[in-house]
Amino acid sequence: MVKPPDENLLATCFQEVTGAPPSAIVPLRPHASERRIYRLSQGTTTLVGVVNPSRAENDAFVALARHFKSKGLPVPTIHTYKPEDGVYLEDDLGEVTLLDFLISERAKTGELFPQAVDEVYRRVLSFLPRFQIEAAASLDFSLCLASDKVFSETLRQDMRSFCTELVGRLLPSFNSAELEPEFATLISYLEKAKGGFFLYRDFQSRNIMLLNNEPVFIDFQSGLKGPLQYDVISLLYQSSAQIPEGDREALVEAYLEAVSNYTSCDREDFFRYYPAFIISRMLQVLGVYGRQGLGAQKEYFAKSIPGALVTLHTHLRSPRLAIKLERLLACCEALLKSA
To answer: Is 51 in the same domain as 186?
Structure first.
């Protein structure tokens, strides 16, 4: 249902952009976001309208979208932005996400990771270094929502969220303070990885639309300066995607080949920190899954918890992990029993 203030505001913006009022305004589901998102249409013309009270979030998204668009990257065009009203209109990219495409092809072929999906993932990963390296070279990072934060602070916030939103709900008697020394060890270790790139922050298949079989990228407003590994892990270790390990290995190699077109990359250094970045990403998403799945009772996020816990558990036990996180491993095993 369209809220009356939203309807009037969106209709005015649409008419300013197209010259005619919309004949229909249809709400769209915003997933984990608190934004109110609508599809506006008049004849064959359609746009997506976003109403969001967070001025800082809107400013970051619009500024980054315009910067990435200026670099030739496939992101939505911002047709109008009224910061005082918390509204902007952008391209309508349809409704097919990369995850939708994966699920559809999986059902069609009976294969866990069909060839057509592999090809699209490789295409997606060819764009990632352009965001991280090419566009970052001329990006004013003060435009980012987290411009005043270093990556380590976002890691600390993720770990606090993991404790409060997931552990606190599933294991109320567990003393999360016992994890603090290991969190400090993990952050200290990850701080040694090479940084200074654009970190998309939530580079996963529900934030990649497919329009005419080509990827278009959205939801980069939480981006900040950081390392390369985190984003590729966000895509390849997304719980709902269930990408087989062999395909993950091939895709990360394809990604590193794409990176080599823009900068030199020390493979040994990249993979030295890779397992620990997997853990940091799993802690981040599990905090979100706890808040949205257990707190807000959103089914998609609740269903994603067991898979993410399995991934976390697997990599906490990996011989490739250079640091010991035994208390976190015990916590993860207890969570697996309760989830």
So the answer is: no
